[in-house]
């Protein structure tokens, strides 16, 4: 129960600065570990999975966030290709997913992120994919690589809104990740995160400590069932599912919640 924890509170400037510094140092530390293991040929996918969860848990502990997961998670190891399409309203969306969902999850990242010193190289070594939509030849190569990664068991995370929502409301979707889903015959798992925008709202440094955050997992959607109906129909279906997950009053009877999770 949430009332077993201290009430949420706003972080002061010093705490915000310390959390920011710690976040950079923690991220740098894990990036160096990934690169070091890669350099000696000992970087394994399972090791990266552990790193992403540990990194995420470390960042979330700095904020005192109280996570819980709701809904049934599919078996990501059943041999099918999976994509997690998730709401995006905070920097902490991705750590929340890494902590609460199983499997070898990798973020579909913007190519610009790979230019960040150390971190970008670590992301590349850790099998984080990207799709270059500005270069057709490179985009085709990236798409083939993404499909290969998914066939090998990697679950791709993507934000169909493209950018973070500043008010927690669902923004218009972009078509990129839906094209990828259809071109790879992926199973889409819609996810909505409630309360995360209050932890660290987009576009600012207003950090709120001890916030309850709920990760809601929806029923999987087979993208191959929308081949004839088209990408717009697929986008509409995913959007409707996400809206239901975000708004309890619009959703059907809720799935039983798992026990609250403390970032490991």
Short description:
It comes from Pseudomonas nitroreducens. The protein has helices at 13-39, 45-63, 93-100, 119-125, 136-151, 176-183, 196-199, 231-246; strands at 9-10, 66-70, 82-86, 104-107, 154-158, 187-194, 208-209, 212-217, 221-222.
Structural class: alpha/beta
Report low-confidence residues grouped into runs of 5 or more: 250-260
Major sheet summary line: 7 strands, mixed
Summarize the helix and strand pattern as letters.
EHHEEHEHHEHEHEEEH
Q: Number of DSSP strands?
A: 9
How many domains? 1
Arithmetic mean of pLDDT: 88
Envelope shape: globular
What fold name stands as the CATH topology? Glycerol-3-phosphate (1)-acyltransferase
The N- to C-terminal Cα distance equals 18 Å
* Portion of residues within helices: 25-40%
CATH class descriptor name: Alpha Beta
Strand content: 5-15%
Number of helices: 8
Rg calculated over all Cα atoms: 18 Å
What does the oligomeric state look like here?
A: single chain
Can you tell me the CATH architecture?
3-Layer(aba) Sandwich
Descriptors for this entry?
264 residues, two-stranded antiparallel sheet, 7-stranded mixed beta sheet, Glycerol-3-phosphate (1)-acyltransferase, 8 helices, globular, alpha/beta
């Amino acid at each position: 129960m949430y009332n077993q924890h201290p009430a949420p509170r706003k972080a002061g400037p010093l705490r915000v600065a310390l959390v920011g510094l710690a976040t950079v140092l923690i991220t740098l530390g894990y990036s160096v570990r990934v690169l070091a293991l890669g350099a000696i040929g000992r970087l394994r996918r399972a090791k990266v999975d552990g790193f992403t969860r540990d990194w995420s848990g470390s960042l979330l502990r700095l904020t005192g966030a109280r996570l819980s997961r709701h809904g049934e998670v599919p078996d990501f190891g059943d041999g099918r290709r999976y994509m997690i399409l998730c709401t995006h309203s905070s920097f902490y969306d991705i750590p929340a997913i890494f902590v609460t969902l199983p499997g070898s999850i990798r973020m579909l990242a913007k190519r610009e992120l790979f230019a960040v010193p150390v971190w970008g190289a670590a992301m590349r070594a850790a099998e984080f994919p990207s799709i270059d939509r500005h270069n057709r030849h490179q985009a085709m190569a990236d798409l083939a690589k993404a499909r290969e990664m998914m066939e090998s068991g990697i679950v791709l995370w993507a934000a169909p809104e493209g950018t973070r929502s500043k008010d927690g409301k669902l923004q218009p979707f972009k078509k990129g990740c839906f094209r990828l889903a259809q071109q790879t015959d992926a199973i889409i798992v819609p996810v909505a995160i409630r309360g995360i925008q209050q932890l660290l709202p987009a576009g600012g440094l207003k950090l709120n400590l001890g916030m309850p955050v709920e990760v809601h997992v929806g029923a999987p959607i087979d993208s191959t069932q929308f081949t004839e109906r088209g990408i717009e129909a697929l986008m509409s279906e995913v959007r409707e599912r996400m809206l239901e997950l975000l708004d309890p009053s619009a959703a059907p009877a809720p799935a039983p919640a798992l026990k609250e999770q403390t970032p490991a």
